[in-house]
Design goal:
Length: 377
């Protein structure tokens, strides 16, 4: 199988070694380098793994997950495959909408570079507009991020038009009804091609009524020699030290599965300037929360149960009624996946929407009320 390499990682000079078991905040930034009337990009999906997470291969039929990304910019299948593979530490999107020429998008990832599961990176994104054009690394070892000494070896990665792939899943008819970012309203609306992944031959020729005839994309011929496509930058970012406010609203509907209860809760988790302490206060009105057995912050997205990362309340016996919880959290309070990590690990997970609060009772030991912590605007 051919594994066409991405363009060289530029200025990949190792930084100073990181301390053992030190979690770092890695900021990944994408910049669309295409000309003004050139190609756009979908939000790029990136992941960090041990070098075994393989998204696609040249001359091999695309997976359903890659098809969804290439045709519709939908990364959910890739994310599910990554989680199922259990070979990496983190994944996420750069940007929340299309990235226009000259535009940028960035996301921070909290990684432990001392383990093998953050050694390599994967990126996949749709080239817009198109039927099924995309960029990404076919070789799971093709984008080294950290070396065995926990040194960052990735800094800048440049891709040009020669790095655009065709998923081979949809006929490149460039009809507006079938082409994402060109008029398509229904995902997967194009004609099935039934082909294999291969390097893209370019858009239909100007004059054919396709993408290049639209003034908005008249400079979109990425097959031109040296056509600039995108730049990815990897850089270790400082931990969050400025004050931040987070809110939480709890009810039974957010519990998995949902619980019928009149109990509710509302509160705040505020990061103090310096980033080493988070104070919190959560109130439970209506006096409906009875026989409470515990309260905690857990790691998990909406609708997903996850492990405890902070114990907020753990009485020896069930509390008759609970009206309010308040206190402060430091790195010493982090447990489970965040044990021995800085408070920044919790702050970053909240920003990603992956921390929820849950209150348990004797009646509902898996949770009577629950709510996701959210960063205040």
């Amino acid at each position: 199988m051919s594994k066409k390499p991405l363009l060289a990682l530029v200025a990949a000079t190792a930084l100073a070694p990181l301390a053992v078991s030190q979690q770092v905040r890695l900021r990944v930034t994408v910049e669309n380098l295409s000309p003004v009337q050139g190609t756009h990009l979908s939000p790029l999906w990136v992941a960090f793994h041990d070098g075994t997470f393989d998204v696609y291969d040249d001359t091999v039929a695309a997976s359903a997950a890659l098809e969804s990304m290439a045709e519709d910019g939908d990364s959910s299948g890739l994310a599910a495959a990554f989680v199922g593979a259990a070979s990496g530490q983190a994944h996420g999107l750069l940007g929340s909408g299309s990235i226009a020429p000259g535009g940028t998008a960035a996301t921070d990832f909290l990684l432990d570079p001392t383990t093998t599961t953050a050694r390599f990176g994967t990126l996949v994104g749709a080239v817009l507009p198109s039927n099924d054009a995309f960029v990404g690394n076919a070789d799971p070892l093709g984008v080294p991020i950290f070396d065995a000494g926990a040194n960052l070896v990735a800094t800048n990665l440049f891709l040009d038009g020669g790095d655009v792939w065709d998923a081979g899943t949809e006929v490149n008819d460039e009809l507006p009804a079938n082409t994402q970012f060109f008029g398509q309203e229904t995902p997967g609306a194009g004609a099935d091609e039934g082909g294999t992944v291969g390097l893209h031959g370019g858009f239909n020729a100007a004059g054919s009524g396709g993408i290049l005839d639209d003034p908005s994309f008249s400079e979109g011929d990425f097959t031109e020699s040296g056509y600039p496509l995108l730049k990815l930058r990897y850089a270790v970012a400082d931990a969050v030290t400025e004050a931040r406010e987070h809110t939480v609203s709890l009810d039974g509907d957010a519990v998995v599965p949902a619980v019928s209860t009149k109990a509710t809760g509302n509160g705040s988790f505020d990061l103090v300037i310096g980033g080493t302490t988070m104070s919190y206060e959560v109130k439970f009105p209506k006096k409906k929360l009875k026989k409470v057995t515990g309260a905690s912050l857990n790691l998990g997205a909406v609708g997903v149960d996850g492990p405890v990362v902070v114990e907020l309340f753990s009485p020896d016996s069930a509390q008759k009624k609970l009206k309010k919880l308040s206190g402060s959290i430091t790195s010493a309070d982090l447990v489970g996946p965040f044990a021995a990590m800085p408070l920044d690990a919790l702050v970053g997970a909240i920003a990603d929407g992956d921390v929820y609060m849950v209150v348990t009772t004797t009646k509902n030991p898996d949770g009577e009320i629950r709510g996701q912590l959210e960063l205040s605007p």
